[in-house]
Amino acid sequence: MVWPLLRDQFMSLLNYSHSALSLVTPATAIILAVLTRKVILSLSAGIAIGALLLTGFNPLHAITYIAEGFISIFWDNGFNRDKAFILIFLLFLGVMTSLISLSGGAQAFGNWAKKYVKDRQGAQVFTVLMGILIFIDDYFNALAVGSVSRPLTDQNKVSRAKLAYLLDSTAAPVCALVPVSSWGAYLIALIGSIMASHGVTGTSAFGAFLEVVPMNLYAVFALGMVFMTAYLDLNVGPMRRHEALAMAGQPYDQSEDDSLKGVQLEEYGKGRIADLVVPIITLVLATVTVMIWTGADVLTAQGQAFSVLGAFENTQVGDSLVYGSFAGLAITILRMLSHKLPGKLWYKAITDGVRSMLPAICILTLAWVLTGVIGHLEAGKYLASLVPQSFSSGYLPMILFVVSGIMSFATGTSWGTFGIMLPLAGDMTAATDINMLLPVMAAVLAGSVFGDHCSPISDTTILSSAGASCKHIDHVSTQLPYAISIALVSMFGYLVMGLTASATTGFFAAFAAFVLLVLLFKKLSFGQFSDKKAQATLVKE
Fold first, then answer.
1. pLDDT tens digit string along 414-472?
2. Angle 467-540-153 (CA atoms, 0-180°, nearest 5)?
3. pLDDT per position as a tens digit, 63-81
4. Fewer CB atoms < 10 Å away: N or C end of the chain?
């Protein structure tokens, strides 16, 4: 009798939704993940605490709420095609990768690449260039480029943690800068609606997006850093140990249980480069084709004229990924028939391919449920409410960059942050100085990408770990020094941009800070590590 009374009195004093308590749930998941290195346990704990907060600490109601959260992934006022199809895409890609590995295609590609990729830097630069070229969608980018690059980076003794960083830093940043992508189309539509609501004319939504691109300092300099990291083989912070392990013959940390180490199958017969290249090209072309096709169907239904940009704006990403991966898997199977595999190897390849993706599927599913819990707690709105309305417009770009970064990090979603913070940014600049609209919106985009980039509960971060076959928490911890450093560079650029009211001045101020950062990283990094004694010391750290 005492506990219910105390609970009711406690609840009467607190409003969990849209308050500081709304941050308890994401904070629990993130802190536990860092401390325990057990991501599934940490996400589950965050979900449980959030459910208890939302249901007034009623355990039965909390269990019901959590069950409904899992059900809503697949059924939310109808079949949830996008999320279900993304999980199917992961399974198809896992089986496809397993079959390619079994055929010897990955090894054949690695042997061919040896002629052109001679060292660690070459393998890393190749991965970065592939990530920039495949800019259609961040999910697709992380998984497809990971499948192609992993054999090459393993062969050249680049750690899986480094590969995950290269994938993650060329996924969301590239997609946020390219108009012909799932991200670009969404952002153009959102920017256009905000401009219209505030009566901004003289430029189209597409033109405004192109103007915003060089002002998106985090995305621009994150790409700059990943290229310099690859070209100069920069290794700082926890990445130093992982790279030392890789050079000692351990691309992933074998001292811990790592269920994401990838499919380990003996090759059967003599593989050919085409066994890897043809399925991947089929996957890319089929995915892009279906993205345009599904988007065009929506335009037709709405009575609008076809355009590539309009198609990408209205595309069905889940459908495109499933159909594209199915086409790639079908071609892989057809090519594998020529290898005349025994039935037991087919079975092993398929089951190992599915099993290799199960940890990523589990983490991604939990992250989706946790994101829903955080949304119901209105953590994003609470963080947005912290932005002072009375600040000078000169400080707005930097402030909104920081708040957007924290929101995206805590909620694990950049798109959700775009939806909340971009309209807020529009309202604030309209009330102060409408000429700052584009720089302020660029700051929101940059902060959202930054938070998503380093959040352990972000789906892009999770899929980058899966694409690299890297332990998820290893990816998060090794990426943070790079991401946070570029965030500081961006903050400085936005401060200068706001105070001078010049996007050009702000960009070059950030560029100068970026150059100094690269020089610092080069000094701190061991690069091409030849000192065996020092390497052994790092491995033991």
1. 877 777 777 777 777 776 777 888 898 899 999 999 998 888 888 788 888 888 888 88
2. 30
3. 999 999 899 888 877 777 7
4. N
Structure tokens at 238: 């926890």
SS3 (DSSP) at 79:
strand
Helix, strand, coil abundance in the chain, percent, nearest 5 = 75, 0, 20
**What is the C-alpha to C-alpha distance for residues 66 and 491, in angstroms, rounded to an integer?**
38
Q: What is the DSSP string of 426-471?
A: HHHHHHH-GGGHHHHHHHHHHHHHHHHHH-TT-HHHHHHHHHHT--
State which amino acid sits at residue 293: W
Cα gap 336→169, rounded to integer Å: 33
Residue 256, Cβ neighbours under 10 Å: how many?
10
Q: DSSP letter string over 293-327?
A: HHHHHHHHHTTPPP-HHHHHHT--HHHHHHHHHHH
Dihedral sign for Cα 520, 522, 525, 526, please.
Answer: negative
From the centroid of its chain, how far is CA 21? Answer: 26
pTM of the model: 0.74
Q: Which two tokens stand for residue 2?
A: 């005492």
Q: How confident is the model at residue 293 (pLDDT cuts 50, 70, 90)?
A: very high
The whole-angstrom separation of Cα 479 and Cα 225 is 12
Other Cβ atoms closer than 10 A to 178: 18
How far is residue 124 from each of residues 145, 170, 469, measured CA to CA in Å? Answer: 12, 12, 16
**Backbone dihedral region for residue 536 (phi beyond 0: left; psi -120 to 50: alpha; all else: beta):** alpha
The H or E element that residue 246 is part of is: helix 239-247
Helix (H) or strand (E) holding 393, with range, is: none
Q: Please report the DSSP string for 118-185 in residue order.
A: -SHHHHHHHHHHHHHH--S-HHHHHHHHHHHHHHHHHHTT--HHHHHHHHHTTTHHHHHH-SSSHHHH
- What is the C-alpha to C-alpha distance for residues 489 and 509, in angstroms, rounded to an integer? 9
Q: What single letter denotes the amino acid at residue 514?
A: F
The rounded radius of gyration (Å) of the Cα atoms in the chain is: 24
Asked if residues 117 and 123 have their Cβ atoms less than 8 Å apart, the reply is yes
- With left for phi above 0 and alpha for psi between -120 and 50, is residue 134 left, alpha or beta? beta
